[in-house]
Automatic annotation (TrEMBL):
Localization per record: Cytoplasm
Gene of this entry: prs
A cellular component term, taken from the record's GO annotations: cytoplasm
Positions contributing to D-ribose 5-phosphate binding: R196, D220, D224, T225, G226, G227, T228
Molecular functions per Gene Ontology: ATP binding; kinase activity; magnesium ion binding; ribose phosphate diphosphokinase activity
InterPro entries, sorted: PRib_PP_synth_CS, Pribosyltran_N, PRTase-like, PRTase_dom, Rib-P_diPkinase, Rib-P_diPkinase_bac
Catalysed transformations (reactions): D-ribose 5-phosphate + ATP = 5-phospho-alpha-D-ribose 1-diphosphate + AMP + H(+)
Protein name: Ribose-phosphate pyrophosphokinase
An example Gene Ontology biological process: ribonucleoside monophosphate biosynthetic process
Main location: cytoplasm
Keywords, in A-Z order: ATP-binding, Cytoplasm, Kinase, Magnesium, Metal-binding, Nucleotide biosynthesis, Nucleotide-binding, Transferase
Amino acid sequence: MPDMKLFAGNATPELAQRIANRLYTSLGDAAVGRFSDGEVSVQINENVRGGDIFIIQSTCAPTNDNLMELVVMVDALRRASAGRITAVIPYFGYARQDRRVRSARVPITAKVVADFLSSVGVDRVLTVDLHAEQIQGFFDVPVDNVFGSPILLEDMMQIGLENPIVVSPDIGGVVRARAIAKLLNDTDMAIIDKRRPRANVSQVMHIIGDVAGRDCVLVDDMIDTGGTLCKAAEALKERGAKRVFAYATHPIFSGNAVENLRKSVLDQVIVCDTIPLSEEIRSLPNVRTLTLSGMLAEAIRRISNEESISAMFEH
């Protein structure tokens, strides 16, 4: 069996180290930096010939820099005769640009990125909670899309929820919310119907379901500016919700997210470590982080040993 080796770019160094620790190994020796003109510089400083290589790198902000780091690392490893290269992308950037809405003259950038990664020599992709699962079909190589929900669900079970109800922040998240509600002792579910007048601005319209006197658990795949969740929390509290918890896998926290969360009525915001948090976000008392390192380490181990990934999520 080829030697398994882990490498990491500069996007998620802490998560990469946690994964390496879980696998009782160390990160590979690679110098990933910049030339004086800003171009990405990569040098692999150890033998990888024939190795089973995993590159851990979210394509979060700065998205283009992190994507180029990943691509250039793949090329360096491919030219060094790596046996198989798996791109471990905990957060897959550009995933929201996955379609042309009403035939608008816009790119399908998620497909462009998939083609980019395939063409440079990625043999397999491991990612977490793709914004749209059909993005897997954009790739010409196998994609394992694993889920953060077991980690989030474990936390929900431990925080002492009282008479909980799972809430989808929009119509598009109903399938996710229903799955969480079923696993959370088959609890009730509510839906928030909202309209979005322009990008990153949301307006809560009304709530489908009775939330009065209950602990509300908002679930989503990502939090961007936080505007949607903060307004959702306000609407839930106005309708008598006791406490409001927001759970999401990917903490993008762009724009005025810090201010939104600081002013929000959310009791807690719980996210995963697919994207590093800024110091401002870390300082907020109502924000907590859960690690996906154990789950990703197990997925990497299974891929390396040619074992089933789907078996990790069979209940």
